[in-house]
Design brief:
Layout: H1 2-27, E1 29-30, E2 34-35, H2 40-48, H3 53-63, E3 82-85, H4 106-120, E4 146-150, E5 154-159, E6 165-169, E7 188-194, E8 197-203, E9 208-209, E10 216-217, E11 222-231, E12 234-242, E13 251-259, E14 282-284, E15 290-292
Parallel strand pairs: 6-7
Antiparallel strand pairs: 1-2, 3-13, 4-5, 5-6, 7-8, 8-11, 9-10, 11-12, 12-13, 14-15
Helix pairs in contact: 1-3
C-alpha cells in the first residue's frame, strides 16, 4: 500500500512539474518588462501530456491553486474593439500550400481532402451560408470586430458576426450536469483567472467545421484556452482542441487580436443579421455548392 501511495504521489508530482514550466513562461519576462518569447513547441507538448481537455484544464487549475476571483475594483482592462489578425485559416501559422496543420484521423483527413478539391472547382457549401452562427471554436478565427466584456463572475466574448456571443462563467460553477447537457453552437464554458490570464474549458459543442476549408470536428470536441493581454494593443489566445473522433492528437493554435484605433469612438458594433436581405436565402444544391433561393432584383422585395 505504501508503495502504491508513493507511486501515485510521484505521478502527481511529475504531472505538476510538466505543467509548471509552461505556466511560468506566461508570467516571466525578459529584459525591460518584455514578455518572454512564445514557445509553440512547449505548448504542443503540454497538450500531448494530457489525454483530454478536462485533464489539462484540471492541471492548470491545480497549478493556479483554483484561481483568484476578480474584484470589481481591480478588473483587467480588455475594453475596446478588437480584430483577429492572420491568414484565413483556423491555425494562423498554416501555410497556403498546406492542407492543414492538424493531425487528423484517416477518415477526417480524406473528408477534408475531398472537400478542398471540390472547393477548387467552385463546389462548396459553408455552414454559415444559411445564416447559421459560426459556432465555437470557429468563433476564434472569424475576421469581424469583437468585444471582450469582463465582469467578476462572467466574461462575455462577442462578435458582430450575426451577433454571436460566448459566456464564460468564472464564478466557480462546474459544467452543466451530463444528464442535462446537449450540443450547443458555442458549447458550455467555465473558467478561472490566474494572474491576469483567463483559463477556459469548453465542452458540449455541436459538430461543425473549424473554419472555412478547414477540418470538421465531432460533438466530442472539447477545448482549453488561455487568454491574456500582452500589451495595450494585443490580446492572445492559446488554444488546445481535443477530439477523439477526428484528431490523432490535440491541435494547438495561438490566435492574436489587435485593438482597433477608435479614439473618436465613431466605430461601433452594430446589430446585423443576413436574413435582413431577402435575397440571402441560401440553399445547398445537389452538387454540394451554394445557391440563392428565389433570387430577384425586384426593388419591392
Amino acid at each position: 500500500m505504501r508503495r502504491l501511495r508513493k507511486a501515485a504521489a510521484s505521478a502527481c508530482l511529475c504531472a505538476a512539474l510538466a505543467v509548471l514550466p509552461v505556466l511560468q513562461s506566461f508570467a516571466q519576462q525578459d529584459g525591460a518588462g518584455a514578455p518572454r518569447k512564445y514557445d509553440k513547441e512547449a505548448m504542443i507538448r503540454l497538450g500531448l501530456e494530457h489525454a483530454t481537455a478536462a485533464e489539462l484544464f484540471a492541471a492548470l487549475r491545480r497549478d493556479a491553486h483554483g484561481g483568484a476571483p476578480l474584484r470589481a475594483d481591480a478588473m483587467p482592462d480588455w475594453t475596446g474593439l478588437w480584430t483577429r489578425v492572420g491568414p484565413p485559416f483556423y491555425d494562423p501559422d498554416q501555410k497556403p500550400t498546406e492542407l492543414t496543420t492538424a493531425k487528423l484521423k484517416p477518415a477526417a483527413l480524406e473528408e477534408l481532402r475531398k472537400r478542398r478539391e471540390l472547393s477548387k472547382q467552385g463546389v462548396e457549401y459553408d455552414p454559415i451560408s444559411d445564416c447559421s452562427p459560426p459556432g465555437f471554436p470557429r468563433f476564434l478565427a472569424i475576421p469581424f470586430l469583437r468585444e471582450f466584456i469582463v465582469t467578476p463572475g462572467e466574461t462575455w466574448m462577442t462578435s458582430e458576426t450575426v451577433n454571436n456571443m460566448r459566456r464564460i462563467y468564472t464564478d466557480g460553477r462546474g459544467h452543466t450536469p451530463a444528464e442535462d447537457a446537449y450540443p450547443l453552437w458555442y458549447g458550455d464554458s467555465i473558467g478561472f483567472w490566474n494572474d491576469g490570464k483567463l483559463v477556459v474549458h469548453t465542452s458540449q459543442l455541436r459538430a461543425n467545421i473549424f473554419h472555412r476549408n478547414d477540418p470538421k470536428f465531432s460533438d466530442a470536441l472539447e477545448t482549453v484556452e488561455i487568454w491574456q493581454k500582452l500589451d495595450p494593443e494585443t490580446i492572445v489566445a492559446d488554444v488546445w482542441a481535443y477530439d477523439p473522433e477526428t484528431l490523432e492528437e490535440p491541435w494547438f493554435v495561438r490566435d492574436t487580436y489587435k485593438k482597433v484605433s477608435n479614439d473618436d469612438k465613431s466605430v461601433r458594433i452594430g446589430y446585423w443579421d443576413c436574413h435582413e436581405n431577402p435575397n440571402n436565402v441560401v440553399i445547398e444544391t445537389e452538387q454540394g455548392s451554394s445557391q440563392f433561393g428565389d433570387f430577384t432584383f425586384d426593388e419591392n422585395k
